[in-house]
Design brief:
With 161 residues, the protein is mainly alpha-helical. It folds into 2 domains: 1-69, no CATH class; 82-161. The chain is built from 4 helices and 2 strands; from the N terminus they run H-H-E-E-H-H. The chain has helices spanning 4-27, 53-60, 83-114, 120-154, and strands at residues 71-74, 77-80. A hairpin with a 2-residue loop joins strand 1 and strand 2. Helix 3 runs antiparallel to helix 4. The longest helix has 35 residues, at 120-154. It is flat and about 80 Å long.
Length: 161
């Protein structure tokens, strides 16, 4: 006669398989296909919203819930193929990245000054890096104002408002 433990494990395994199939049948949609929106929220009755769903939904859908053509939600944010919105999003990305690099250069220059240990060459290099970074940040700020003035006020280019 087979071992009672093996029989028990076999019956337990069969019962587990049937219970998993029953749970899957309850969670499925009527067509057995997930109903997902463009932002990746599938089966709203069972699944929580993704963390960035609100930003994605405002990017891809209008106020009435209709899909907006020519807009894409990416890692960099909401991008559009319409020229006025494309220029604005690309400029914000470029200025954001360049400002971040300038800020990191200020931090690196500060670290160089702090760790110079009285070495005049390293001290001068750190001060030069800090000065150059601050000048770079000012150039970025003035270029934003200049682009706004020339692009929007003078030439009336869409996307520079």
């Amino acid at each position: 006669m087979p071992n009672k433990t093996l029989i028990f494990l076999f019956i337990f395994f069969i019962a587990l398989l049937f219970s998993v199939n029953l749970v899957k049948a309850q969670d499925a949609t009527p067509t057995d296909q997930p109903t997902c929106d463009l932002c990746g929220w599938c089966n709203p009755a069972f699944n929580p919203k993704p963390p960035n769903w609100d930003q994605c939904h405002t990017c891809l859908y209008d106020l009435n819930g209709n899909e907006q053509k020519g807009t894409y939600y990416t890692v960099l944010g909401c991008l559009s193929t319409k020229p006025e919105f494309f220029v604005k999003s690309i400029l914000s990305i470029v200025f954001g990245v360049s400002g971040g690099i300038a800020f990191l250069a200020v931090l690196a220059g500060s670290a160089t000054v702090l760790t110079s240990s009285g070495d005049p060459e390293r001290l001068r290099n750190g001060k030069d890096m800090i000065f150059s970074s601050i000048v770079g940040i000012l150039l970025i700020l003035f270029s934003v104002f200049l682009l706004h003035f020339v692009g929007f006020d003078i030439f009336r280019i869409p996307g520079f408002s």
